[in-house]
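Methods — Computational structure assignment.
A single polypeptide chain was analysed. Its primary sequence is given first, followed by the predicted tertiary structure written as structure tokens.
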Amino acid sequence: MNSVLFKKIEESTSHKKSRVSLANFCLKTEENIVELVEIAFNLKHQYHVKAFWVLELVCEKKLKLFIPFFNPFCSVLPNITNDSSIRPAAKICMFLAKSNHRKNGISLTKEQEHIIIEVSLDRLIGTEKVAAKYYAIKTLFVLGKKYPWVHDTLKQILIDDAADHSPAYQAAARHVLKKI
């Protein structure tokens, strides 16, 4: 790849200003979104982490542009192992769950919902950092409104595991437990 987007990703940093600038560039054309997704979903690509950081911001601004990529996203989601990619992927799952739950939001298939639930549960009980767990909790809470068993499972995990985690995790757990 030798495109303008590739060069911008290559030169980008983790700073918010850099990521926002790159997200705005990607939002200009459909081709940029396609290339960004290709890089992000290629887990062996040297810049896939940077691409995921930008993709998170693209999804936050215009989630509907991500609709054509739901199936590939759900395919790659269980295979993401890099901590720096797990957090933005978990946040994208939260965006998808929230939009799926809203009237006039995007629609996920049952299969896509189940993949997101399964991966979110794995993230929650795994060794991921607290930010990924936080987004997994939020995702599971929203999808649990459609699938009550998810709330039951989430409640049990939060009750059993909260004491072993950071104060931020405990606060998120308390907040969600009050709502379940």
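Note: Residues 83-101 form the longest helix (19 residues).
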